[in-house]
Design brief:
The protein is an alpha+beta fold and 441 residues long. The chain contains 17 helices and eleven strands. Belongs to the peptidase M16 family.
Length: 441
């Protein structure tokens, strides 16, 4: 039940209850430590081939942030046997599409091909792992690409620095304190040898999971997996440092001026536990109660009834080590961010002191049944979920059983978890405002 930042501002209420079919899979390890997961689905002549590496922004040197995201781009540059600039041409010429993405915890690459091109997909992903070409031309080219992405998605995007500003104030020791896109100054200062060392350390078979999902013959797939991935050398096992944050015991106040906005934003944020915990799933449900759809508590009260806010939302951003629980809103004049925070606190207080009604609880359970079905409704979603549940949760079968955890959550737990984590002395209040020179114009 992973929620993305983009999806959370426009969550849909889903009517009816669908029943999920069990996702069948087979998993095994190669001698070099690569974990392989196969999921057969002959319903369409399509196959998804994906590799998830256990490397994200949290694995970076604090003076070299942005490396994991940079590699998301860099490893499309070419390989020993795929010329520079040819990767995407090969994919499209064979009827496929591909993409990649990076988080604080992992980096994910995938291709979607007609099923008769499975061997091609496996060869390409093995090339990325075995024979990447990491040279100065590629580094310089992708440096400009990443800079343009940062300008477009962060620097010139209204509220584009919200997440970054929250994280750097919520975390003081943990590498979650910087954003995956990192620092352009760090990337500019990095040497080619540093990029090559990062690749050698993290892009190794024993730090990855390969997923094949779709219409294929299992015996043939296994043969090709062994042929292309089996010869890759096992890497030096990775030792990861653990970072423990001290509990937040009094309100943190911070300010950020955004030159791209005209309306200030009310922002509160709480540090929460790992996505692997039961409490993190309860917090997912709490965010649904507060802001999932127009009948949710915050929307109904502050947008619909009181006309205090243009937009309002709450979401639990769960990650491997910690999470961040956000509540945010755009005030409608003459209301201020402080007015919105007061209204948010009133709704949280209700959750902390009153059980939600049986009717609302049933509606909530129906929503999670639907979300579970939808999360596995296409091959791409299934492939990414299989990889994530193995690499980040340590249990592939959660793809089938996580819904049972949500089903078992009680109204009392919702009240108690709200009381445990969502308190004024345990949070950040971020004063996110228009830049002063813009506000005066």
């Amino acid at each position: 039940m992973k929620k993305s930042l983009m999806a959370l501002s426009s969550l849909l209420m889903l009517g009816g209850v669908a029943s999920a079919q069990k996702v069948a899979f087979e998993e095994y390890n190669l001698d070099n430590g690569l974990h392989v997961i196969l999921h057969k689905d002959p319903s369409a002549p399509v196959v998804v081939t994906s590799v998830m590496y256990h490397v994200g922004a949290k694995d970076e040197n604090p003076n070299r942030t942005g490396f994991a995201h940079f590699f998301e781009h860099l490893l499309f540059e070419g390989t020993k046997n795929i010329a520079r600039g040819e990767w995407f041409k090969i994919v499209t010429a064979n009827g496929g599409n591909n993409n990649a993405n990076t988080s604080d915890d992992r980096t994910y690459y995938y291709e979607v091909f007609p099923s008769n091109n499975l061997e091609l997909a496996l060869w390409m992903e093995s090339e990325r792992l075995m024979h990447p070409v990491i040279n100065q031309i590629g580094v310089d080219t992708q440096n400009e690409v990443v800079k343009e992405e940062k300008r477009l998605r962060v620097d010139n995007q209204p509220y584009g620095n919200l997440f970054t500003e929250v994280k750097k104030n919520i975390f003081t020791k943990h590498p979650y304190r910087w954003a995956p896109i990192g620092s352009m100054e760090h990337l500019d200062a990095a040497t080619l040898q540093e990029f090559q060392a990062f690749n050698k350390k993290f892009y190794i078979p024993n730090n990855a999971v390969l997923v094949v999902a779709g219409d294929f013959d299992s015996a043939q797939a296994k043969e090709w997996v062994q042929k292309y991935f089996g010869p890759i050398q096992k890497g030096t096992p990775i030792t990861r440092e653990k970072f423990e944050e001290a509990p937040i015991t009094q309100t943190i106040h911070a300010t950020y001026e955004d030159p791209n906005i005209q309306i200030p934003m009310a922002v509160t944020a709480y540090r929460t536990p790992s996505m692997k915990t039961r409490d993190a799933r309860v917090l997912d449900m709490i965010s649904s109660i507060l802001s999932d759809g127009k009948s949710s508590r915050l929307y109904k009260k502050m947008v619909d009834e009181k006309k205090m806010a243009l937009q309002i939302g709450a979401f639990n951003y769960s990650q491997e080590d910690y999470g961040v629980y956000f509540i945010y809103g755009l005030p409608l004049s003459p209301n201020t961010p402080a007015d919105l925070i007061k209204g948010m606190d009133e709704e949280i207080k209700k959750l902390q002191t009153e059980l939600i009604s049986e009717k609302d609880f049933q509606k909530l359970q129906n929503q999670y049944e639907n979300q579970n079905v939808n999360s596995n409704s296409n091959l791409e979603g299934v492939a990414e979920n299989l990889a994530s549940y193995y690499l980040l949760y340590g249990d592939v079968n959660l793809i089938n059983t996580e819904i049972d955890i949500y089903r078992s959550i009680t109204r009392e737990e919702i009240r108690d978890v709200a009381k445990k984590y969502l308190n004024p002395n345990q949070r950040l209040i971020l004063d996110y405002t228009p830049a002063k020179d813009k506000a005066q114009n």
